[in-house]
Amino acid sequence: MARLREKAALLQRETLALYYAMRDPRTPWTAKVLAGVVVGYAVSPIDLIPDFIPVLGFLDDLVLLPIGIALCIRLVPADVLADARARAKESTEKPRNYVAAAIIVAIWVVVLAVIAMWAKGIVAPG
């Protein structure tokens, strides 16, 4: 259990480091966009698969988040990432990315609208 908590703390610290890297002017715009989505997803209360669904609810957090973080780490320059990690280690600030949260909410709204239209027969499945 202690090892799992350690991994969760590391994931949280890496997410915060990505938040700082995203705000750094030395970070390429593609890395900023991806980091914004990853950080927004990490701090958003809305998940692709809701957490109350047994097993699957936490699967997206255990799979999607580490994959997104790993991809961002490859895109962010090493010196920027080192600075961001140092800042994240000493910081207690919680990242807030309203743009990424809005994107996630918009995706959910579109998915629910398509499901509703399909249920009413407006849109054909497939």
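Second entry:
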Amino acid sequence: MTGLASDHDAAIDLVLEGYGRLESLDPDNELLQFYRRTPEGLELQDGREEAFFDRFQDADDRKSGHVKIAKVLGTYFVALRDAADRIEKYNRLNDDGR
């Protein structure tokens, strides 16, 4: 497998993991609006492409006109992970009675 293909596949795996984790914690989270579950995994929602890339594509990459999809997916994964982490931290704090 080439470097680009393996980077893309790794980014997809991370997004699937992060999406599932966040979905289990908060199925209505706004980050989940960009993709939907399919039997094959996840699919970018029709009509959400521009908003997705506006939000997760690096400004320098946008200026260059090159889409680095693995990088965009990596940024999306970080947002999914951070949202799930915040929810879990909130839940732990509330469960501890603090």
